[in-house]
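quick q for whoever's on today - can somebody do inverse folding on this one?? i tried earlier but teh output was garbage lol. tokens:
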């Protein structure tokens, strides 16, 4: 009897669909919105934020793959078909891109690049020493998974004291670990640069709020590259306007694209980028999915299956 190929339903941007044939080898691909398919024949799904209810209508689904490192786009659907395994995308290129973005933004702030941009615009030769020495500038990571650990290592190499806050204590060389709700305020109290890389869960939604900002040292910079749902925008604007925070760098927003009339666009202390800190490359994701499907078909689980109950 001929062996049937595993069938993958891709719910992806149009530009991805054309790449699928070559990259997925022995996997049969159907594209949502383009190809007709029988829901009972779908073995796997690839998406970032599938339409709510769609996965629940696939009775033989074996696993779902996320296009990105985050899986909140799947787990915000209350009908997600537990216990179907959900696989996050983890890749060195993605971690490297995120590290580049975070180092760039942190260093623009630390090295006072905006001041020198202004001097250049005015044709002024004005030397100025660092406001705070590197070894006194504490960088704090909210969340320290693959991407966070990789990035933290680069800050350590540059001489920054680095700390992290996670659900459970983590041992990463050069990083001081804080864990659990009771250690959040002590963690925040020394974060001159706070980087949010948390998964979006019920517990972390709105964690970047007035109380968190008040616990940071005067003049701190907040960088959010996780999800817009972590941030209470009005609290951020109040903390910036009061002078308590020196600035914010935001790559993710509750509603994307960010609305034209959102005041964050024009706030003098805010840098806005359009969710580009680390972009999954289609060819790399598809090779990852091909290998993940092969693992499931052999009866194994890829190492990056998340716990769908905790989203970690
Ligand atoms: C991701 C993202 O989760 O791009 O990878 O936001």
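ok took a stab at it. sequence:
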């Amino acid at each position: 009897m001929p062996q049937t190929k595993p069938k993958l339903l891709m719910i992806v941007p149009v530009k991805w669909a054309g790449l699928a044939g070559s990259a997925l080898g022995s996997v049969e691909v159907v594209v949502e919105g383009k190809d007709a398919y029988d829901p009972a024949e779908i073995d796997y799904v690839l998406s970032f934020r599938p339409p709510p209810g769609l996965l629940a209508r696939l009775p033989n689904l074996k696993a779902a793959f996320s296009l990105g490192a985050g899986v909140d786009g799947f787990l915000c659907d209350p009908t997600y078909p537990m216990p179907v395994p959900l696989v996050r995308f983890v890749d060195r290129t993605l971690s490297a891109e995120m590290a580049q973005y975070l180092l760039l933004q942190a260093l623009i702030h630390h090295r006072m690049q905006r001041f020198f941009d202004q001097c250049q615009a005015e044709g002024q030769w004005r030397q100025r020493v660092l406001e705070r020495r590197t070894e006194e500038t504490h960088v704090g990571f909210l969340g320290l998974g693959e991407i966070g650990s990789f990035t933290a290592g680069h800050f350590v190499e540059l001489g920054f004291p680095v700390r992290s806050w996670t659900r459970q204590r983590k041992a990463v060389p050069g990083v001081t670990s804080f864990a659990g709700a009771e250690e959040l305020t002590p963690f925040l109290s020394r974060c001159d640069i706070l980087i949010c890389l948390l998964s979006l869960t019920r517990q972390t939604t709105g964690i970047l709020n007035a109380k968190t900002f008040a616990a940071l040292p005067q003049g701190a910079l907040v960088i959010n590259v996780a999800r817009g749902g972590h941030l209470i925008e009005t609290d951020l604007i109040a903390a910036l306007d009061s002078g308590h925070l020196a600035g914010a760098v935001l790559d993710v927003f509750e509603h994307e694209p960010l609305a034209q009339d959102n005041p964050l666009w024009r706030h003098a202390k805010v840098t806005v980028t359009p969710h580009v800190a680390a972009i999954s490359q289609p060819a790399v994701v598809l090779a990852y999915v091909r290998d993940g499907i092969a693992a499931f078909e052999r009866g194994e689980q890829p190492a990056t299956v998340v716990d769908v109950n905790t989203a970690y």
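fwiw The domain at 92-272 is CATH 3.40.50.720 (Rossmann fold). also The pocket of oxalic acid is lined by residues 68-70, 280 (CB under 6 Å). so keep that in mind when u check it
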